[in-house]
Design goal:
This protein is about 40% helix and about 10% strand. It has a two-stranded parallel ribbon with strand order 1-2. By secondary structure, the protein is α+β, with helices and mostly antiparallel strands.
Length: about 60
């Protein structure tokens, strides 16, 4: 659930050198809570703390 694309990000975590990463364009079939839970579950902690999902206005 909602983790498919996040797995691809997690697999390439070492490539992201950005200080902050803004994630956008989530499927409308997932709630905001499901998206955040999938990010928390899927991304390594060091990458997750730099990722902000843009959920306002969905």
């Amino acid at each position: 659930m909602a983790a498919g694309g996040f797995r691809e990000i997690a697999e390439r975590a070492e490539l992201f050198q950005n200080e902050a990463i803004l994630l956008t364009h989530f499927s409308p079939r997932y709630s905001n809570a499901e998206i955040v839970a999938a990010l928390d579950r899927t991304l390594p902690a060091g990458l997750r703390e730099r990722c902000t999902p843009l959920l306002a206005g969905r």
